[in-house]
Specification:
The chain is α+β, with helices and mostly antiparallel strands. The chain contains 14 helices and twelve strands. It folds into three domains: 5-115, Winged helix-like DNA-binding domain superfamily/Winged helix DNA-binding domain (Arc Repressor Mutant, subunit A), CATH 1.10.10.10; 128-253, no CATH class; 263-328, Alpha-Beta Plaits (2-Layer Sandwich), CATH 3.30.70.20. The chain has a six-stranded antiparallel sheet. The two termini are 43 Å apart.
Amino acid sequence: MSKSIYEKMTDKIMLTGSKIVPKLFEMIADQEEAELLMAMPGTPAQLAAKTNQPVERVATLCKTLYQKGLAFKSFKGGEVGYKMCRDMIQFHDATILWSEASREYHDLWQRFMEEEWPAFARLAEQFFPKPFTRVIPVQESIDPGKQQVLDVDSVNNIIESADTVALTKCTCRVIAHKCDMPLEVCLQVNNAAKYTIDRGSGREITKEEAFKILRECEEKGLVHVTMNKAHVGHFICNCCGDCCQALPLIISEGIKICDPSRFQASIDPDSCIGCGTCQDRCYFGAIEETDASSNGSVMKVLTEKCLGCGLCMITCPEKAITMIEARSADFIPQ
């Protein structure tokens, strides 16, 4: 039995076998739009030749697909071209933020995240050598005087060095509705910010506004996550343990689909009073109570579970927690 065009689109973004993703594509793209997406990449003129359609019609459809989040602009060769979303992450993030996306569409995405995504995430863990994303520590948690801190280790440096910053809603919390954490906290940087502004799926903000959002997210207990590359990335997500694509699966199954930061929490048993504040702040079960002969019960870091987010450190009343450099600079992929 031959595959439908929506199943072929699902294959193209490496989700072969999904029963829900073809329905998502069908809900947001009609047959004509789907055929154009499958003909991409290309300029409107090139795509018109491929599909035997008038250039004007193709150009209009390309703009519509760009607004929907199904197509992305390409600027190779001096002409504006279009390419289909390359993977599940682009498809998820871009289409959920389409201004005309319905609640029914969002609910179907959440069905995919709950029913099918965990199995695909397990496959991704085995197939890809490194996760797509990485945790970044809370800015105030690292002492730059005692260890090497790269620009990509610092949310402040990422924002400070950016030429453009934009703000969008967190796509995971938009569809999941599982917590009351802030919604409009996803920071887009440089090219991603320019895309967001051009498409109208977010708004440009100042660096001062971005710093304020980061501080508020840290106070709320949200984990900073960025692209897992050794350069200033395209985004800083601020993730919760309930709605996020990655964190709930790390928490529940230990699936390695988001790398830790290069740093790790360390608790001084002589300073710790065992209050448990750090344990309450840790999503990952990386802190436990232990007996210490000189100081009664104190808290201890389980290093194999610590993702190095720094949320525990900034609320420790005794300043007993430090973040230490646990991984070399080449831990972050080039």
